[in-house]
Amino acid sequence: MTTQENNLSLHCPKEYLLKMLTGKWKPCIFRYAVQGPVRFGQIMKLLPDATRQALTNALRELEESGILDRKVIKLKPLHVEYHLTELGIEFIPIFKAVEELNLLPVMLKK
Amino acid sequence: MTTQENNLSLHCPKEYLLKMLTGKWKPCIFRYAVQGPVRFGQIMKLLPDATRQALTNALRELEESGILDRKVIKLKPLHVEYHLTELGIEFIPIFKAVEELNLLPVMLKK
DNA sequence: ACAATAAGTCAAATTTTTATGACTACTCAA
DNA sequence: TTGAGTAGTCATAAAAATTTGACTTATTGT
Questions:
Q1: Which top CATH class is A3-109?
Q2: Which of A22-31, A49-58, B86-95, B97-106 has the highest mean pLDDT?
Q3: Which of A40, A60, A62, B18 lies at a 20 to 30 A Cα distance from A83?
Q4: Class of the B24-109 domain?
Q5: CB-based burial of residue B63 (10 Å sphere; 0-12 exposed, 13-18 middle, 19+ buried)?
Q6: Model confidence at B71, in pLDDT bands (50, 70, 90)?
Q7: Which residues from chain A sit within 8 angstroms of residue B15, using beta carbons?
Q8: Which residues from the 51-110 window of protein chain A have CB within 7 angstroms of nucleic acid chain D?
Q9: % chain B with pLDDT above 90
Q10: What distance in Å separates the CA atoms of residue B73 and residue B66, rounded to the nearest whole number?
């Protein structure tokens, strides 16, 4: 493993990967999507502090990363559904690892 | 789980946790530290694109998060050693999960 | 006393990310 | 044809993260 290969920020898939899941809202959205397909307005309600713009950005990025898939549902009032792709499903273990950590001691120190 | 509890960015430990490990250089430094204690100058050489300032920032943040411990070694030329704390060790599974992903297909699409 | 090495700090500039507020597109139903 | 509902876009502003380049501290060897 050379120095260059170790520089995650520029060359390594691992950093690239973490970037896919980070940002102010992407982790939240990802976690909702794990539960099942989510719609735009639904996320808006679940994350009242996020703006439309913030959510569309996050959703576009998750889409571009190949984690979420955008599906327009032509029903009564038009809907847009986002759901995990196969790749997205592969990311679940990362969140599982995160959730398995007991952060209480850390939070309390703050 | 209420809406508020789900808003990782503001209220949930999971987002707080992800924040501990993200940023331009923190993941790299963390991965080095997993191998064993690292020194400032050593990291500088390993990450030639990172500036002193960037590294001290990252190291301070990792320290404040309780992931790394800073130890001054009063030897020949003064040294500063950073090593994983117990909490830091608990983070390893997250990176393991990251490393277990096969990102080749993703990288190729870009 | 002086230079060298290791590990920084500081203020300012730049870049990236996120927020604000106004406006748009499409579909359906009355 | 008008209005309601859903899902946005766009330009700009503000905030946060990162970089730049000069300066600092502490210790040791000569």
A1: mainly alpha
A2: A49-58
A3: B18
A4: mainly alpha
A5: middle
A6: very high
A7: 27-28
A8: 52-53, 56, 59-60, 70, 77-80
A9: 53
A10: 20
